[in-house]
Automatic annotation (TrEMBL):
PROSITE patterns: ATP_GRASP (PS50975). GO terms for molecular function: aspartate carbamoyltransferase activity; ATP binding; carbamoyl-phosphate synthase (ammonia) activity; carbamoyl-phosphate synthase (glutamine-hydrolyzing) activity; dihydroorotase activity; metal ion binding. GO terms for biological process: 'de novo' pyrimidine nucleobase biosynthetic process; citrulline biosynthetic process; glutamine metabolic process; UTP biosynthetic process. The lineage of its organism: Eukaryota, Metazoa, Spiralia, Gnathifera, Rotifera. Pfam families: CPSase_L_D2, CPSase_L_D3. Gene3D superfamilies: ATP-grasp fold, B domain, Carbamoyl-phosphate synthetase, large subunit oligomerisation domain. It catalyses: hydrogencarbonate + NH4(+) + 2 ATP = carbamoyl phosphate + 2 ADP + phosphate + 2 H(+). Residues 31-94 form the ATP-grasp domain. Transmembrane segments: none annotated. This is carbamoyl-phosphate synthase (ammonia).
Amino acid sequence: MENMDPLPLRTDYPIVIAPSQTLSSDEYNLLRSVSIKVVRHLGIIGTCNVQFALNPLCMEYYIIKVNAGLSCSSEFASKATGYPLAYITAKLVLGLNLVELTNNITNQTCACFEPSLDYIVILIPKWNLDKYDQYSNKIESSSKKSTDGVTDGDKSIGRSFEEAFQNALRMVDHDIIGFHSDAPTIADEELIICRAERVLNIATAIRQGYTIERLFDLTKIDRWYLYKFEAIIKFIVEHSHPSTIKHKFILREAKHLGFSDQQIVKYSRITELKLRVLYDQYGIQPFRKQIDTLSGPIKRRRKRPETAIKRRLTM
């Protein structure tokens, strides 16, 4: 997993994306091999995560910290992948190895298989600063713990980055309907300084005509993410008309980009009842999928209760 923002003054409140979206194959394998070497050198058995700072222009990297044991990053990784880190760690401490442990979701593969994700999980920190007038929403070197007004936020999941990202924004604040800002203009300083609302300021900047290169120079956020943000804003601008949203392809594309019904009604200026009629007409229905840790190649098999197996043996 990776942080969307570049290396800040503090690493406590980043926007986290899993799996990583901007690493090349060589960069991923390099950091993976270094992590394994660090864990083996320290003799760690159980849960451990290694955090890096990587220069995207070359293969230069720095190890920021090593967390041996369960941490917030480990909790996020476990929930995002479906891999039970705490359970596996307890079994390893008891002397078992990964080959002897079974994946509790598939009930077929062993625990030594690395999780594979065909979806994206995003965590955006939540800033509860309404009742703390003395605190600034600017991320500085001083810590702002959860008791001070900053919490870990909620995890959002989606088939695409745009879908997961817009869902994450709605989960952070119920007043936010998605990646959109009503501010008419924005100053460069609002994009340079890392604040709680900087992501929404990027939406204003794109509507104002900022190019991707200019946004990259100001925010240092990877261009891959900036292009995704631009795609959301372009869709809003190009399809903010009742006649365009009535097309099946456009409506499916809106859901793929993570637009909620409230957003579609607002931008297309149609009624919610009309939108429901279009859903029924085009066969667009909500659905859910099981996190299987292996991207679906192995079908989940239900584990039989132990009592039922004993009864069959005694008969």
